[in-house]
């Protein structure tokens, strides 16, 4: 079996070819991060144009690296939801075109389900397991009951953590530090935080601490951090490069606050799963995925709550935490094995910009 995966939901054109055992045969990634970082966020028009320019060579490159041609492919998996509509359309249209002219089955993939499930390609993970998805557009806690059956336990009421890390990095002008100029905000902030010597001079309140659910909120952290920042800026003179003197400490303190909040809500989800016996007590696992899962500090804080609650923590390799074609191909393979949502009738027409993960949302979970 050979599966081709195509991802274009946001600002990365990613393709991958895997075999029936889940071995990666070839992949390609045309990332637009550096460009969008320069403009302060993803521009949907630019993103669409770049996907359009890159999609053909991204697919060809992945197939070439795999030593395969489109004729060898048994099914084409493509992200159809959620994401930027113009971006999604490029991948979906291209996949539809390939499927039509080469008579290949098409498998629509939910981007967040793909983030959640791809860990199974790297680790032996039995269902059900708990998943924490932390990325540029989402913050979700869910129980993965089956590859197409998710129970949503909590989500962000406002911003996503990646979005907030990117915004704070921008406000702190981390891009003016030459080593960080090409990095996404989240990565720059993680590296800057490592240079901190006195993070405890800044403190942030724990969001939603009184709420007995698994939801998240990052807007307060973002705004209180900004308030402190402005305060500092008026007290001290900013340096020539636009950086404030305590920039590293503020990054570390902010990262700690984000990590503590995520760990706190994850702890609640673990308590909920344990209390309601939703997870096999012999086999308790939490998967962390999405771009922010690359952050070692945040992942370690999840490992820490996990170890207290008897959950082993897993994450895919960094390049598979952020957007990529591998996770789409993997999701295609799992769906093909289960014969779930395989389209052979050219019925795949629409892409969907907003699509919830899971059937249920429980507000008062513990
Ligand atoms: P979504 O998956 O919700 O649609 P997205 O696809 O834009 O959003 P991803 O590609 O999964 O998001 O992740 C991108 C985000 O990950 C960015 O906000 C980026 O700052 C963040 N990120 C990447 N590396 C790190 C890191 N080391 N620490 C923190 N955040 C990081
Ligand atoms: Fe993503």
Automatic annotation (TrEMBL):
One of its GO terms (biological process) is tRNA threonylcarbamoyladenosine modification. Residues 24-330 form the Gcp-like domain. It catalyses: L-threonylcarbamoyladenylate + adenosine(37) in tRNA = N(6)-L-threonylcarbamoyladenosine(37) in tRNA + AMP + H(+). Its cofactor is a divalent metal cation. It comes from the Eukaryota. One of its GO terms (molecular function) is metal ion binding. Gene3D superfamilies: 3.30.420.40. Its EC number is 2.3.1.234. Binds 1 divalent metal cation per subunit. SUPFAM superfamilies: Actin-like ATPase domain. Keywords: Acyltransferase, Metal-binding, Mitochondrion, Transferase, tRNA processing. It is an enzyme of class 2 (transferase). GO terms for cellular component: mitochondrion. It is found in: Mitochondrion. Homodimer. Required for the formation of a threonylcarbamoyl group on adenosine at position 37 (t(6)A37) in mitochondrial tRNAs that read codons beginning with adenine. Probably involved in the transfer of the threonylcarbamoyl moiety of threonylcarbamoyl-AMP (TC-AMP) to the N6 group of A37. Involved in mitochondrial genome maintenance. Belongs to the KAE1 / TsaD family. This is N(6)-L-threonylcarbamoyladenine synthase.
């Amino acid at each position: 079996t050979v599966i081709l995966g195509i991802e274009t939901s946001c600002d990365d054109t990613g393709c991958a070819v895997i075999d029936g055992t889940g071995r990666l045969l070839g992949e390609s990634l045309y990332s637009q991060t550096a460009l969008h970082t320069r403009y302060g966020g993803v521009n949907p028009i630019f993103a669409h144009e770049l996907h359009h320019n890159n999609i053909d060579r991204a697919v060809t490159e992945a197939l070439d690296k795999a030593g395969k041609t489109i004729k060898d492919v048994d099914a084409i998996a493509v992200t159809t939801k959620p994401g930027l509509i113009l971006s999604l359309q490029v991948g979906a249209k291209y996949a539809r075109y390939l499927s039509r002219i080469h008579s290949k089955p098409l498998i629509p993939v939910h981007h967040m389900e793909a983030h959640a499930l791809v860990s199974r390609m790297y680790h032996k993970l039995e269902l059900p397991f708990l998943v924490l998805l932390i990325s540029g557009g989402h913050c979700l806690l869910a129980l993965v009951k089956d590859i197409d059956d998710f129970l949503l336990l909590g989500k962000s009421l406002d911003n996503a953590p990646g979005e907030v890390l990117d915004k704070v990095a921008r406000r702190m002008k981390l891009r003016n530090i030459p080593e960080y100029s090409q990095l996404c905000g989240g990565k720059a902030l993680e590296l800057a935080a490592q240079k901190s010597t006195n993070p405890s001079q800044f403190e942030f309140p724990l969001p939603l601490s009184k709420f007995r659910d698994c939801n998240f909120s990052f807007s307060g952290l973002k705004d209180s951090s900004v308030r402190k920042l402005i305060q500092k800026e008026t007290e001290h003179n900013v340096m020539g490069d636009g950086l404030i003197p305590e920039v590293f400490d503020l990054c570390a303190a902010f990262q700690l606050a984000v990590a503590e909040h995520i760990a706190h809500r994850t702890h609640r989800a673990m308590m909920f799963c344990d209390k309601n016996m939703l997870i096999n007590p012999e086999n308790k696992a939490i998967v962390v995925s999405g771009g922010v899962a690359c952050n070692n500090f945040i992942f370690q804080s999840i490992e820490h709550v996990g170890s207290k609650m008897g959950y082993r923590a897993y994450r895919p390799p960094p390049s598979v935490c952020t957007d990529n074609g591998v996770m789409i191909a993997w999701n295609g393979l799992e769906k093909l094995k289960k014969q779930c949502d395989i389209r052979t009738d050219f019925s795949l027409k629409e892409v969907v910009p907003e699509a919830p993960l899971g059937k249920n949302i429980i507000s008062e979970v513990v």
